[in-house]
Amino acid sequence: MDARALKIEAARAALAHVEDGMRLGIGTGSTAEEFVRLLAARMREGLSIIGVPTSERTAAFCRELGVPLTTLEETPELDLTVDGADEFDPELSLVKGGGGALLREKIVAAASRRMIVIADESKAVQTLGRFPLPIEVNPFGLKATELAVRRAAEALGLAGPVTLRMTKDAPFVTDGGHFILDASFGRIPDPRALSSSLHSVPGVVEHGLFLGLAQMAVVAGAGGARTILA
Ligand code: 5RP
């Protein structure tokens, strides 16, 4: 199976958990977009849901395909969020934010009773840290925040390049108007310690460690989709 077929396979397995009338958090990224395509097709057959998108990109895609949307202001509690991940470990701790939507993704996941991760086997790791950790920061005081992030990591024995995410010649700007630092710290043996350390840095808006948020992953590989429970 090629990469796209695996994403479709994972998305299809997650769709089986979507029930009529659900309030759905809808993730961001290429795997989440396969989910939206399948969801839209099911809706044409009669399924009724309302969705909260995790990014402007997802919102636009949902509108294009006719998936009805609401906001967390109107619908602050969701039944289920389906989203991709950049990597996941056996406990379903995740790194997310490769698509730059980590802040809204985390807010939406936290507002949901359940989160299902959709991914292919290439995203599975024993220990998080293979994928650079996205850290969303306020543009004000960028250099000072970057230095504080490095120091917070160093206090935990973590070090490595921290780079400002760029698009062409300008910093990448998130839907919330922030920048993203991609931190290549390598293996993260204690994600909880790093999470609270990063949260203590003024200027850090959010980071891409999703801990205790996902209850299930449907992971597509050559032999089909397998389910992992947290
Ligand atoms: C976006 C994300 C995505 O879920 C993550 O990057 C995975 O994307 P893809 O399904 O395209 O591999 O966190 O912020």
Question: Would you spell out the secondary-structure blueprint of this structure?
Answer:
Blueprint: H1 3-15, E1 23-26, H2 30-44, E2 50-53, H3 56-65, E3 78-83, E4 87-88, E5 94-95, H4 102-110, E6 112-120, E7 133-137, H5 142-154, E8 162-164, E9 166-167, E10 170-171, E11 179-183, H6 191-199, E12 204-207, E13 209-210, E14 216-221, E15 224-229
Parallel strand pairs: 1-2, 1-3, 3-6, 6-14
Antiparallel strand pairs: 4-5, 5-13, 7-11, 7-12, 8-11, 9-10, 14-15
Helix pairs in contact: 1-2, 2-3
CATH architecture of the largest domain: 3-Layer(aba) Sandwich
What is the CA-based Rg, rounded? 17 Å
Mean pLDDT: 97
Ligand kinds: ribulose-5-phosphate
CATH topology of the largest domain: Rossmann fold
Instruction: Give the strand line-up of the largest sheet.
Output: 2-1-3-6-14-15
Gross morphology: globular
Binned, the helix content reads 25-40%
Count of distinct strands: 15
If helices are DSSP runs of H or I spanning 4 or more residues, what is the number of helices? 6
Strand content: 25-35%
Pfam families: Rib_5-P_isom_A (PF06026)
Function: Catalyzes the reversible conversion of ribose-5-phosphate to ribulose 5-phosphate.
Pathway: Carbohydrate degradation; pentose phosphate pathway; D-ribose 5-phosphate from D-ribulose 5-phosphate (non-oxidative stage): step 1/1
Catalytic activity: aldehydo-D-ribose 5-phosphate = D-ribulose 5-phosphate
